[in-house]
Amino acid sequence: MSRQIQFRRGTADEHKNFTGADGEITVDTTNKTLRVHDGVTAGGIMLARADAAFKVWISPEFQPTSATRTIATHNLGLNPLHSWGDVLLKCVSDDAGYSVGEYCSNWTPSGQNGNLAFPISHGVTLTENTIETTTGTSTIAALKKDGSNEYAFLNLACWRYVFRIFY
């Protein structure tokens, strides 16, 4: 008679609070995939399915405001260790050589001291249910669209943030 091997299993929600032993394999019955555990990471590491592709969540548009955090709630309940996000600028009124509807991904929050700009760390903070970024103390600096490798200070009223999460 043949032998049957059965792994521990549970839903995605049950996996959130489960830290398996180092090297343990469990079955995620919600996502129809396996998870490999390291004895430390809650939920383990989900293995990709052969038929799976990344899903992308796209936020509504947000008006950037000087020296302000912009927070979007996505309520995906995702594990930030298994996902990544970014934020694009969408032009809503011509500025720095960009036309309405164009996107700029090469930008940085910026402080301004007279005519001198100093970049501030650009990025997003991704949590289980939110994603956020911060506008510089003064404005945003972006590469001009003309290919000159020069930065321009943007008029914040001409731009909107659009967050993306890949999970």
Description:
The chain is elongated. The protein has one helix at residues 12-16; strands at residues 8-10, 25-28, 33-36, 45-46, 56-58, 69-73, 84-91, 103-104, 107-113, 116-119, 125-126, 130-134, 139-143, 151-153, 159-166. Mean pLDDT is 85; it is low at 113-121. The strands form four sheets. It has a four-stranded mixed sheet with strand order 1-2-3-4. A four-stranded antiparallel sheet has the order 5-15-7-8, with no helix packed on it. By secondary structure, it is mainly beta. Helices cover 3% and strands 39% of the residues.
Rounded average pLDDT = 85
Distance between termini?
42 Å
Which percent range describes the beta-strand content? 35-45%
Strand numbers in spatial order across the main sheet: 1-2-3-4
Low-pLDDT windows of residues: 113-121
Q: Characterize the main sheet.
A: 4 strands, mixed
* SSE class: mainly beta
The helix fraction, in percent, is: under 10%
Element order: H for helix, E for strand: EHEEEEEEEEEEEEEE
**DSSP E strands, number:** 15
Write down the overall geometry.
elongated
Radius of gyration: 21 Å
Annotation field: number of helices: 1
